[in-house]
Amino acid sequence: MLPDHAPQAFLDRSTLWNDVERIEKAKNAQLAREVEFSLPRELSREQNIALARAFVQEQFVAKGMCADVCFHDTGKGNPHVHVMLTMRPIEPDGAWGSKQKKEYILDEQGERIYDKRKRQYKCRSIPSTDWNEQSKAEEWRSAWAEAVNVAMEQQGLSERIDHRSYERQGIEQIPTIHVGAASQMERKGMVTDRGSFNCQIEIDNRTLKQINARLKKLQSWLRTEAEMVQPTLKEILQGIIAKGGDQRHYQNIAKLKIASKVLIFVEKNGIEDVAGLVDKVADMRQQFGDIRERLKVVERRLKTLDEHLKQTEIIRKNRKLYQQYQQIQNSQKREAFYESHRAEMMLYEAASRYFEGVMNGKAGLPVKEWQNEAKRLSADRNGLYLGYQKIKEELQSAEAIKQSAESILREEAQSETRARSRGLER
Questions:
Q1: What span, in angstroms and rounded, lies between the C-alpha atoms of 348 and 339?
Q2: Residue 186, Cα to own-chain centre: how many angstroms?
Q3: Which of 17, 33, 73, 311 would disulfide-bridge 85, Cβ 3.0–4.6 Å?
Q4: Are 233 and 221 spatial neighbours (Cβ–Cβ below 8 Å)?
Q5: 23 CB-contact burial (10 Å; exposed 0-12 / middle 13-18 / buried 19+)
Q6: How many helices and strands, by DSSP H and E, does the chain display?
Q7: Which pairs with CB-CB distance under 8 Å and at least 24 residues apart come from 358-363?
Q8: Domain ranges for the chain
């Protein structure tokens, strides 16, 4: 997809990207930007294609970018789009524009400042477009979510998407990771690390949802009980047990056992009254929040290490081929070699650029350190996941105690009401 003033020959993707390579002179120049977004499964293939083309036209092509769009939909539930975007604007005459321009730095009098050491006037680079601004990613994500939701509404569908993370939406849920090519292996019944990792996250999210539901119910009950003017929970339980031999007051031994169990629990945890139960739940929530924050840190680092190791493998697999390419002296043979191994060359160059930002000039890749760190963090993550189960068990126990205490308090209230009624009748 091209801007109106772009050469029509660029409709051929080979012509477009060959010309992009021709215009870029720097060896580390960024040739393109890739944008990938998922398509809603609720829409048909034709509707998704129309939606994606309209979005690319509005957000990229209309701004002056050439867009190489690829639709992927194998019918297995993961339709998505890859978009390769050019980095330079196209001038009205069809020629490539500049990525940036130089601007002289002026002093207070409006005069250019001469740098004696560099023997030139001081200047700074000004981008010719706003395409590289950090805010653009958020802007494009938000625009895509809005476009999808409008399309859903037009088709009478209730589903909606949100470009924000779970954390920004206030949703207590752990995000899964992108499975990628491993999804094909999973469908064939083969177990992969990424697939297993996502399965564990789905289990933990279900546990997390159950925990939050129980916490809300328990806190709601505790707030109600805390507002009531009544004897302390411990006093009521002690009074019931003291009257345990009086069958007229307490009808069967089973109820006496329940009261004893609740009393043991509150005494074991140092709880005197309903307010103590409130504090107990608050402590549990604090522990849960701490585990969640630690998990986020570990997950982010593991994701980074996973990408480091992925790019390292690309370097390892293609290094020999790239060295052969560099040793070719004849320019025509060199170009022919590059064309015949374009995919490997581009992967190697992209990985090299990736590590330029990661290593910050340091020599060598600490692959062993990354592997050891990933192994250690995986063990830490497993330990943190056990914390979820522990909190779940504690909540189940607290909820059972709550139900028993609630039953006891309700029966005591009814007993007092009946006693007052008998007194009035006399």
A1: 14
A2: 22
A3: 33
A4: no
A5: middle
A6: 12, 7
A7: 358/308
A8: 8-93+136-163, 193-425
Strand order in the sheet with 80-86: 32-38, 80-86, 67-72
Q: What is the pLDDT along the chain (426 residues), one digit of tens a residue?
A: 999 989 999 999 999 999 999 998 888 888 999 999 889 988 988 999 999 999 999 999 998 999 999 998 877 778 889 999 999 998 888 899 888 888 888 888 888 888 888 888 888 888 888 888 888 888 898 899 999 999 988 888 888 887 676 566 666 666 665 555 556 666 666 667 766 777 777 777 777 777 777 777 777 776 665 555 456 666 666 666 666 545 444 445 666 666 677 777 777 777 776 667 667 767 777 777 787 788 888 888 999 999 999 999 998 999 999 999 989 999 899 899 999 999 999 999 999 888 887 887 777 888 899 999 999 988 988 888 787 677 767 767 777 776 776 676 677 667 767 766 665 455
Q: What is the value of pTM for the model shown?
A: 0.44
Intra-chain end-to-end CA distance of the chain, in Å: 93
The residues facing 83 across adjacent strands are 35, 69
Look at the chain and count its residues: 426
Cα gap 145→139, rounded to integer Å: 10
What residue has token string 């393109």? 32
Which residues face 82 on adjacent strands?
36, 70
Of the CA atoms within 13 Å of residue 176, those in its CB half-sphere come to 17
Cβ neighbours around 412 below 10 Å, total: 17
279, HSE (Cβ side, Cα atoms, 13 Å) = 9
Are the C-beta atoms of 179 and 195 separated by less than 8 Å? yes
Amino acid at position 326, single letter: Q
CA distances from 411 to 249, 255, 328, 374, 404 (A): 11, 10, 91, 56, 11
- Domain covering 8-93+136-163 in this structure, CATH number: 3.30.930.30
SS (H, E, C) 287-338: HHHHHHHHHHHHHHHHHHHHHHHHHHHHHHHHHHHHHHHHHCCCHHHHHHHH
Q: How far apart are CA 160 and CA 36, in angstroms?
A: 19
